[in-house]
Amino acid sequence: MTSVVLFEERRADNGARIGIARLNAEKTLNALTLEMIDLMNERLAAWVADPAIALVAMEGTGERAFCAGGDLHALRGSILEHRASARRDDVRANAYALAFFSREYRLDYLIHNYPKPVLCWGHGIVMGGGLGLMGGASHRVVTERSRIAMPEISIGLYPDVGGTWLLNRMPGRIGLFLALTGAPLNASDALFAGAADYEIRQSDKALIFDALLTQPWTTSRPENDRLLTNVLLGSSVSPDETVGPARANFDLIDNLCSYASVSEIAAAIAGITAQDPWLQQAAATLAAGSPSSAALSHALQQRARDLSLADVFRMELVASMHCAARPDFAEGIRALLIDKDRRPAWSPVTLAEAERSIAGYFVSPWQPTEHPLADLGAMSG
Fold first, then answer.
1. How confident is the model at residue 241 (pLDDT cuts 50, 70, 90)?
2. Domain at 5-379, CATH homologous superfamily
């Protein structure tokens, strides 16, 4: 049976090795399962300890996606099972959701703090959990077919996997706009927003990986970073003369998202008169999305401004477990992926109601020392 993650080590000319992790679930657009997460955690940890591994590369099987997100079908099954159990009022009792989110966030945190260069080849769809993997890589590549988004508002979740951290660090208020609208970024906009570092043609990928084998890799992280950077810069395409929609509408987006409350921001976005199809689709997605997701995304970005990455992941785990215990997450998955009627019955129905109940998403069911991610800060020293 073929593994859901394929691992390979390629030997460079000077004897150093390059570790390659390839997500291998092409039919599901390489959507992350718990098995994939565990395999990645184990192998990346082993490669940290191997001095012969100079750098790690992540890629996806097929031409359609690096990774389209997490395995939502399994998560919904665990939510329904938890809801029918005697412990339905205990947000900690959904063992699968707790395992999935906590181990996924550990993997993302490991990549953010990896002691060796990490190259992520973000070709095709990079959404949700895929952006969680890519976001922490030291060298993030997009191609002419990359489509990056955090569309969780349509399934009753929010941009987790460190999305709160990444979106908060984008220029102006673009990150908040993307969280509320699920709007996708093309390669040009991904570079502008800080979600990627290099744009390279997909047709040049094989040449890039061949070039990596000819570099004089060392045991020095700064030197290996420099070598990898030079290889990627040598094949990077010139900036596109066509400005992406996020950059083209930067000033408008900043104004739309400048209001104090998420209700005011949503009203401003709903009132967009520009005929730009990207903006119109963004407004439509927000209008049809979960009010709780919108309120939660807004609250998370406000609360996370001065937090460390480890604290952001701890806060996201609490919020995600509350999402798994409330109605919208399972309902959003049903409407999008199960029945595919795209008619979710959100609860609460209005953004005003959602804002009033948002504090509950931040009530941790654990004491600080008992939090499943309590040791994250220690992981990075």
1. low
2. 2-enoyl-CoA Hydratase; Chain A, domain 1 (3.90.226.10)
